[in-house]
Design brief:
Elements: E1 3-9, E2 15-22, H1 23-26, E3 41-45, E4 48-55, E5 58-68, E6 74-86
GO molecular function: DNA binding
GO biological process, one term: regulation of DNA-templated transcription
InterPro entries: ssDNA-bd_transcriptional_reg
């Protein structure tokens, strides 16, 4: 499988960190069924969900459009927005 290479660049333009992710390790199944909606997801209507997550000192609210696959499982699309606030 391929690999994803993430480069973090300082404002000066010099590379400060290089992180390599293996596709097998980094790939997470984020789909779910109507019967198993994750606890932090809130249904807003049709196939739109809001999710609240915490990362470090930031609270993030994601609002995302979901689609259904051939097994009628919901999976996230690219249509959405993430809002965050530092606590």
């Amino acid at each position: 499988m391929g690999q994803l290479l993430l480069l973090r660049i300082r404002a000066s333009g010099q590379m400060s960190e290089r992180v390599c992710f293996n596709d097998d390790v980094a790939k997470v199944d984020s789909s779910f069924s109507n019967d198993a909606v994750p606890l932090h997801h809130f249904h807003l209507g049709e196939d739109i969900f809001a999710a609240v997550t915490y990362f470090a000192t930031a609270v993030q609210v994601h609002r995302r459009q979901y689609k259904r696959d051939e097994n009628n499982r919901l999976f996230p699309t690219k249509r959405g927005v993430c809002m965050s606030s530092v606590l």
